[in-house]
């Protein structure tokens, strides 16, 4: 039985960034037994200008995330948050790129883990390199590292862009279905049942997330 891990995410969410290591660990462990389905929740569905007074809060939250999970927030990123005259966040381009690449992976045109790979590349570009992940050329270059040609990216991005409103509605429907709020949320689908996973301890030990999925799969196979 192939199970599905539904991931309600936003590429500009610090906690989603912190979850990437245990998602990669899970993908490596389960391989073809577990497919990952990415649902863009859109933390910033419109261009959101970040006021100077709020930036210290962002930096403080990121420091807490780094301490808990070990993920890196680069000096270029921290400088950008502190010093950029007009700082704005907008989730749509990056979320669309992840959805588009994940759709190619789902039909076997590229590696099965390319959706996760695209999310990881975007997160590194944003949180380490301080790159503009609203830039479609940059997103195309990141996708190229996953064997997505420029033409393939253009086509999958356009399709994902058209599907984005429906995909976002589905993301929030899933959240309501399992009684969850916010990003990331992880929902295991197996044997027609949906189980919200508790990932809180996995930030410090990704094996706990893997073990939780294993136990859930065993219980659903024997139910």
UniProtKB/TrEMBL annotation:
Sequence ranges assigned to domain DSBA-like thioredoxin in this UniProt record: 5-193
One of the Pfam families matching this protein, by short name: DSBA
SUPFAM superfamilies found in the cross-reference section: Thioredoxin-like (SSF52833)
Record lineage: Bacteria, Pseudomonadati, Pseudomonadota, Betaproteobacteria, Burkholderiales
CDD domains xrefs: DsbA_FrnE_like
Domain of life: Bacteria
PANTHER family from the UniProt entry: DSBA FAMILY PROTEIN, GLUTATHIONE S-TRANSFERASE KAPPA
Gene3D superfamilies given in the database record: Glutaredoxin
Descriptive protein name: DsbA family protein
Record InterPro entries: DSBA-like_thioredoxin_dom, Thioredoxin-like_sf
Organism encoding this protein: Undibacterium hunanense
């Amino acid at each position: 039985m192939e199970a599905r891990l539904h991931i309600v995410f936003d590429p500009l969410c610090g906690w989603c960034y912190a979850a990437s290591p245990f998602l990669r660990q899970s993908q490596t462990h389960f391989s073809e037994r577990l497919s990952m389905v990415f649902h863009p929740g859109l933390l910033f569905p419109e261009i959101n200008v970040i006021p100077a007074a709020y930036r210290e809060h962002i930096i403080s939250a990121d420091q807490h995330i780094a301490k808990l999970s070990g993920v890196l927030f680069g000096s270029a990123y921290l400088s950008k948050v502190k010093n950029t005259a007009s700082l704005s966040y907008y989730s749509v381009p990056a979320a669309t790129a992840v959805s588009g690449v994940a759709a190619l992976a789902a039909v076997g045109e590229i590696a099965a883990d390319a959706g996760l790979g695209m999310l990881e590349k975007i997160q590194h570009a944003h949180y380490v390199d301080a790159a503009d992940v609203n830039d479609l050329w940059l997103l195309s270059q990141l996708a190229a590292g996953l064997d997505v040609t420029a033409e393939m990216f253009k086509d999958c991005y356009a399709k994902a862009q058209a599907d984005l409103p429906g995909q976002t509605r589905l993301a929030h429907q899933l959240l309501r279905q399992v009684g969850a709020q916010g990003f990331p949320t992880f929902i295991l689908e197996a044997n027609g049942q949906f189980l919200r996973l508790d990932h809180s301890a996995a930030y410090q030990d990704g094996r706990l997330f893997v073990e939780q999925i294993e136990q859930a799969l065993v219980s659903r196979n024997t139910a």
